[in-house]
Amino acid sequence: MQTQPHPGRILETATAFWASKALLTAVELDLFSVLGDAGMTAEELGARLALHPRGTYDFFDALVALGFLDREGDGPEGRYRNTLDTRTFLDRNSPAWIGGLPEMFNARLFGFWNHLGTALKTGQPQSEVRTHGKPIFEELYASESKLGQFLEAMTGAQAANFAALAEKFDFSAYQTVSDIGGALALLSRVIAARHPHLRFTSFDLPPVAPHAQRHIDAAGLGARIQVVSGDFFADPLPPADVITMGNILHDWNLEKKKLLIAKAYAALPEGGAFIVIENLIDDARRENAFGLLMSLNMLIEFGDAFDYTGADFRAWCSEAGFRRFDILPLEGPASAAIAWK
Ligand SMILES: C[S@@+](CC[C@H](N)C(=O)[O-])C[C@H]1O[C@@H](n2cnc3c(N)ncnc32)[C@H](O)[C@@H]1O
């Protein structure tokens, strides 16, 4: 129990945007891809990134201090290198690249979060909807480059969670999986690789289909993963033994959440499983800071959308007719919540 006041945590959080923006800017400049496997002096790296000399040492050394670069030697002779993490996840030539996510944070959310106070006072979204008046997906999907950026970002957010789900959930009793809002069919690709007996449908809006198909073909999984286009509010969901929704329910208000849960119930056979993969908030709403901040992010993005607890999921699914429930912790703040019909 703390007895003396200390300002450290207040100041650390108050300035957390400095560290955040330094990392996001490094991604924006593609610093980690430029470095690749090489070691470069500050002068060499600064020249490759076309930076003014004033900031180079401060910028690169701050990234060293934050743990996002290594440096051999000091001063002008010092050579900067990627860390194991940045080489794996932020060098765009790596197969495990997740840079789409920080790119999206930088290009969209960093600016939108400037308007958190307005969002809290008005309950209104502060994303593209505020400036353009268009629904978020329409806005994103109107531009080929924003669509690509958004889909890659989703991939970065969920890859480790889908791998954990493939390990932790017992898929042996099931034959078919429909992933609703499947984006680039990542869930299908990851679980298909781990469980060869399963067949998948990845369901999403029509503009997403060619992007998903390209990734499926590249993975050689075309015979086991079918891409189906549709609107999950207007169309029935493709029936399957397991229905999955990764970060789908949190995009919508309560009425639409319940509609999607009812549609999942309708698409499942008796004994079928409905699995959501989200940053589930702990039931007491005290611990999962990431999940709670994600819910504020949904306010910024959509207005009435919100993240939820395992108890909320259970209550809504019970109302829809589901009978048995479980929660599997996945990576970090994410969990899978499961309801059986
Ligand atoms: C937040 S992303 C989640 C993507 C992926 N499931 C994951 O876990 O990373 C939401 C997805 O829902 C899709 N989506 C949004 N509205 C939709 C609709 N009305 N019908 C079908 N898919 C929709 C989007 O295209 C996007 O791929």
Could you please describe the fold and organization of this structure?
The protein folds into two domains: 8-89, Orthogonal Bundle (Arc Repressor Mutant, subunit A), CATH 1.10.10; 100-340, 3-Layer(aba) Sandwich (Rossmann fold). The relative contact order is 0.09. A seven-stranded mixed sheet has the order 5-4-3-6-7-9-8, sandwiched between helices. A two-stranded antiparallel ribbon has the order 1-2. It has helices at 8-14, 16-28, 31-35, 42-48, 53-66, 84-89, 100-112, 116-122, 128-132, 136-141, 144-168, 186-194, 209-218, 254-267, 289-302, 310-320; strands at residues 69-72, 79-82, 176-180, 199-204, 225-229, 242-246, 273-278, 324-329, 335-340. The radius of gyration is 22 Å and the shape is globular. α11 runs parallel beside α12. It starts with 7 loop residues before the first helix and ends with a strand. The mean pLDDT is 94. The chain is an alpha/beta fold and 341 residues long. β4, α13 and β5 (225-229) form a beta-alpha-beta unit. The structure holds S-adenosylmethionine. S-adenosylmethionine binds at residues 137, 154, 157-158, 181-183, 204-205, 208, 231-233, 246-248, 251.
